[in-house]
Each structure stands twice: as C-alpha cells, then as structure tokens.
TrEMBL record:
Protein name according to UniProt: Ceramide glucosyltransferase
Keywords: Glycosyltransferase, Membrane, Transferase, Transmembrane, Transmembrane helix
UniProt xrefs under Gene3D superfamilies: Spore Coat Polysaccharide Biosynthesis Protein SpsA, Chain A
Domain of life: Bacteria
Entry membrane topology: Multi-pass membrane protein
One GO term of the biological process aspect: glucosylceramide biosynthetic process
Species in which this protein is naturally found: Mesorhizobium atlanticum
GO MF term list: ceramide glucosyltransferase activity
Cellular compartments annotated: Membrane
Pathway membership: Sphingolipid metabolism; Lipid metabolism; sphingolipid metabolism
Record's GO cellular component terms: membrane
C-alpha cells in the first residue's frame, strides 16, 4: 500500500509539473506577428559565424539580406578560406550591394569553442553598439531585429531566442522538432517566467559597450559553451537574460537517429558541465519517469496497466500538442509518436551526459570532461 501511494503521488507530481511548465511557457510565448521598425531605430551589427553548406544555406542567407531594419550591417565569419560556404556568401554579398556586408576569414583561438573563435573577428569589426550573434541556420523573419529589440528591458543584459524546429523531412526530423520545440523551448520559457533566464546561442542580442566593459567577447570563453558563459556573466553584473516572445525558426530537413543522438548528448553534457544542479533533475522531464511510476502504482493496486498508461500519456502529450498548435509550431499526425520516442531517449541521453568521451561539432572532434571541454583536433 505504501509503495502504491508513494509511486502514485510521485507520478502525479511529475505530470502536474509537466503541465505547469506548459502553462508557464504558454503565458510567455506569443504567436508570431509582424513588428514594424520603431522610429529612430538604432543601427545594428549582425555577426553570422558560418561553416559548411547545409540544405537551407542559400535561403537563410537571402533572409539575412532582406531584413526590415533601417540600418544594419552583416558580418559573415568563416574560419577557413577553402570552406565551400565562402562562395555562397560572396555571391549573396554581390547580389545585395545596398546592404552593408563583409566576409571575414580567420580563426582566433581564444577558447576550445570553435564557434566562439570564429566570432571574435566579427565582434572586433562590428561598427555599432547593438550586436547580434546569429547562427547561420537561423531562418530570420523580416522583423528579426524588431523581435529581439522588443524583448530588451532596463534590467536586460542579453536577449536570446531558442530555435524552433520547422520543415522536418522524415520521422527522425520530427523527433528533433519534439526535442527543440515542446520540450527544450517550453522549459526554457517556463524558466524565464520564473526568473531563471538562460542564454541560448542561436540568436543573441548584446549591447556591445556592456559586454566590452566586462571582458568583451573573450569573456564568453570562461565556460565551455558560450551561452552558459553569457548567462553567468549577465547574472554576475545584476542583469537578466530575456527571451523573445516569438522564437525564430530553424529549418531541419532530413535528420537521422545518429545525428539526433550526437547533438542531444553533446548539449546534455554541456549542460551537465556548466549547470550541474539544473541538469540533474532533467531525468524527471518528459513522460518516461512519471509513466513508470504510474505503472508501478497501478500494478500494486491491481489497476489495468493499459488504462493507466493511456491516461498518463494523454495527460503528458495532449497539453504539449495543444501548446504547439496554439503557437503555430510544427505539428503532424506523427508528432505524438515522435514525442514518445523522444521521451524514451531522454533517460539514455541523461545517463550518457555523466560520462566523458569524444563528441563532434561541425567537424570539430572534442572531449567533454567534468569541468572542461578540450578540443582534440580540427578536421579539415
């Protein structure tokens, strides 16, 4: 009897916390709407670190040159001149002579983080006080800058956007949508609502004088991931990380199980190293643990296991699906199945995060230890 009660209460508590996170995120998130540039809009520098050609590279480049902001410059950063993306960037610059744009090539080894190393030259070259660091696979809407600026408050030190997966091609890409959207983005927005804002490196709006006064972009080398370092730096000066109300898309295309496993374990291990106290309870997110507890309680009480499982899954996934529907995120008949597969993977990803070993980030082989990430080699 005691086991039945304990397992039932624990399962209920986890399912309720899952529902609470959805409600908190829903209260903070807004469905996308167009924002006009404000009067007296300040000039902005947009730094785009690039490496390699991806299926949506030409489209994301075109979007960057089509922003509805009165004055902005684009600074594309590539580590190596022989990278095939150089040709596409140069062609895009040539097609848009009215947009101030530059391509900078070189690699400043300020950290073990190859993305941060690639951004240093762009930061130093930026002409304006407002600087956006934008990953090359972000699908910028025309009002990209407006959404970032609209989230800035007097006590803000950094504005970010989580990536929202879109255009999945195949089931495993839908699983990645389930990871990115209604799990990771949802919990990040729920955390911000509770005053626990965490930076996300996909899109980061900085006030350049503020960051320069606190060590500059090199200060982001203090942690293995630049967004973790950014979170700690901003909090250390008494400011907050805010998220845009309508996060930006990342088109996915095709994905394989191996790609998702590699990416999710890498991110999990980075979170474990940089924020261990917040990472430890991640095993409790998703439906796997509350479902297991519910089944234990049902078995002890002689209740139908199939009925219990269906009820627990409905409580977990119906609100999650409604969140995606309400915010205009990707949703398909296979989405619930993708969420289930994601939640089956979560305990294994969480367990894997506690071990070291090699991971790969865009051709960079790296090892994540308990307190550091060491770059082993860069593959040409």
């Amino acid at each position: 009897m005691e086991l039945t009660i304990a397992a039932g209460l624990a399962s209920s508590a986890l399912l309720l916390s899952n529902l609470a996170s959805i409600l908190l995120a829903a209260s903070r998130l807004k469905r996308r709407h167009v924002i006009a540039p404000p009067a007296g809009a300040q000039p902005v520098s947009i730094i785009v670190p690039s490496r390699g050609v991806e299926p949506f590279t030409e489209e994301t480049l075109q979007r960057a040159f089509s922003l509805d902001w009165p004055r902005y410059e684009l600074i594309f950063c590539v580590a190596h001149a022989e990278d095939p993306v150089v040709r596409l960037i140069e062609a895009a610059i040539a097609r848009h002579p009215k947009v101030a744009a530059r391509l900078l090539i070189g690699d400043d080894r300020v950290s073990a983080n190859p993305k941060l190393n690639n951004c240093v030259k762009g930061w130093q070259a930026a002409r304006h006080d407002w600087v956006i660091l934008a990953d090359s696979n972000v699908l910028m809407p025309k009002d990209y800058v407006q959404h970032l600026m609209a989230a800035w408050r007097p006590d803000t030190g950094l504005v970010c956007s989580t990536p929202i997966g879109s255009r999945p091609d195949g089931f495993w890409a839908e699983v990645e949508c389930a990871f990115l959207n209604t799990l990771q983005a949802r919990w990040q927005y729920a955390g911000e609502t509770l005053g626990l804002g965490f930076a996300q490196g996909k899109s980061m709006l900085w006030n350049k004088p503020m960051l320069d006064a606190n060590g500059g972009i090199q200060a982001l080398a203090a942690e293995i991931a630049e967004d973790a370092a950014a979170t700690k730096l901003v909090n250390s000066v008494g400011l907050h990380v805010n998220l845009v109300a309508s996060p930006f898309e990342q088109p996915l295309g095709q994905r394989s199980f191996a790609e998702i496993w590699s990416r999710q374990t890498r991110w999990a291990r980075l979170r474990r190293v940089t924020f261990p106290l917040f990472f430890a309870p991640e095993i409790l997110t998703g439906a796997a643990v509350p479902l297991l507890l519910a089944l234990i309680a049902a078995a002890s009480a002689g209740v139908s296991l199939s009925t219990t499982a269906l009820c627990a899954l409905a409580i977990a996934y119906l609100p999650e699906s409604l969140l995606a529907l309400a915010k205009g995120w990707y949703l398909s008949p296979r989405s619930v199945t993708a969420m289930i597969v994601r939640d089956v993977m979560l305990p294994a990803i969480w367990a894997r995060a506690w071990f070291g070993g090699a991971v790969e980030w865009r051709g960079n082989a790296m090892t994540i230890h308990t307190r550091e990430l060491t770059e082993l080699e860069e593959i040409a």
